[in-house]
Specification:
InterPro entries: CDK, CDK20-like_STKc, Kinase-like_dom_sf, Prot_kinase_dom, Protein_kinase_ATP_BS, Ser/Thr_kinase_AS
Subcellular location: Cell projection, Cilium; Cytoplasm; Nucleus
CATH topology of the largest domain: Transferase(Phosphotransferase), domain 1
Distance between the termini: 7 Å
Order of helices and strands: EEEHEEEHHEEEEHHHHHHH
Family: Belongs to the protein kinase superfamily. CMGC Ser/Thr protein kinase family. CDC2/CDKX subfamily.
Largest sheet: 5 strands, antiparallel
CATH architecture of the largest domain: Orthogonal Bundle
Structural class: alpha+beta
Shape: globular
CATH superfamily of the largest domain: Transferase(Phosphotransferase) domain 1
Strand order of the largest sheet: 1-2-3-5-4
EC number: 2.7.11.22
Number of strands: 10
Protein name: Cyclin-dependent kinase 20
Length: about 325
């Protein structure tokens, strides 16, 4: 292998796998995402093309950087900046407790990234802690834009697939099968993520799509046409019915959390997507002006402080390493 030295395995997805590598001449750590094209007839998977196009457009300090795309054999290698940890790792590490100022800093970085995406007419559609990576100096960056999609601002009748977003962070209109939705699905996920930073557990942890919807309705209360205009026209509305629920008190949902923070999170967790806080609006919310102020970057967690669950264990690593090295050799 000429340009890169493989240092370890990061993970594997539906269309390929990712290795940690080192660019030898630049002495720079990178993430190497190998995309395998199973046949010429299939072409490059749509999600990979969308990720490439989105990352080329979204050059921003809170979005992971795509460094290069290298055609190789029957596939591609995406060379991206390497970020050693994630918000998922941090929340999983019980030895590290986030304080309110740090949560506020992460919330701001996340919203700045989402706002930049939406201002460039791109919705992410899969925001979750595992897709929020952390740099060596503590910056949070949005990653994994495989489900990202360009949208036309103000257009309300364009259809998209509803099979997007990881279940726990999936907006209720998606759970009801809506194909006509807006970038507000990203803001629902933002609210779920901020709540999870506060409690260290997912806000709506369903094991199936039906259970997911049931948990949302039990927590927030049964929606009506008044609270959710267009509810009864959603594709899957009549396919299943749930017992009527009054909903829980937000003090029960987020115990020990101040009212100002609860009101901020409630701004995202709205059935009616048109009432959800937009990213720009959220950045101007009083949440960011009340004490404590957002932490300085120097006070944010660093990957060296976090137990890293990012790299997988070494079982069967030699075979995997050899296979990847053969595929990427010659770059």
């Amino acid at each position: 292998m000429n340009e890169y030295q493989i240092l370890g395995r990061i993970g594997q997805g539906a269309h390929g796998y990712v290795m940690k590598g080192l660019h030898k001449t630049k002495n720079k750590e990178v993430a190497l995402k190998k995309v395998i094209i199973k046949s010429l007839d299939e072409g490059i998977p749509k999600n990979i093309m969308r990720e490439i196009l989105a990352l080329r457009v979204l050059k921003f300090e809170y979005i992971v950087e795509l460094l290069d795309v290298v055609p190789h054999g029957m596939g591609l290698v995406l060379v991206m900046e390497y970020l050693p940890s994630s918000l998922f790792n941090l929340l999983k590490d019980e030895t590290y407790v986030l304080n309110m100022a740090q949560i506020k800093c992460y919330s701001k970085m996340l919203l700045l990234g989402v706002n930049f995406m939406h201002e460039n007419s791109i919705m992410h559609r899969d925001l979750k802690p595992a897709n929020l990576l952390i740099t060596d100096n503590g910056v949070l960056k949005i990653a994994d834009l495989g489900l990202a999609r360009i949208y036309v601002k103000g257009e309300s009748n364009r259809q998209y697939t509803h099979q997007v977003a990881t279940r726990w962070y999936r907006a209720p209109e998606l759970l009801y099968g809506s194909r006509m939705y807006t970038p507000s699905v990203d803001l629902w996920a933002v609210g779920c993520i901020i709540a999870e930073m506060l409690t260290r557990k997912p806000l709506f942890p369903g094991e199936t799509d039906i259970e997911q919807l049931a948990i949302v309705l039990h927590t927030l209360g049964t929606p009506t046409e008044d609270t959710w205009p267009g509810l009864q026209e959603l594709p899957d509305y009549n396919k299943i019915s749930f017992s009527t629920a009054a909903g829980l008190d937000w003090k029960e949902i987020l115990p020990g959390v101040d009212d100002d923070i609860i009101n901020f999170i409630k701004g995202f967790i709205e059935y009616d997507h048109s009432k959800r806080l937009g990213a720009k609006e959220a950045l101007n919310h009083t949440y960011f002006s009340i004490s404590p102020v957002a932490s300085d970057l120097g006070d944010m967690p660093k990957p060296k402080d976090i137990r890293n669950h990012f790299l997988e264990d070494a079982e069967n690593f030699e075979n995997f390493y050899s296979e990847f090295e053969q595929l990427i050799n010659g770059l």
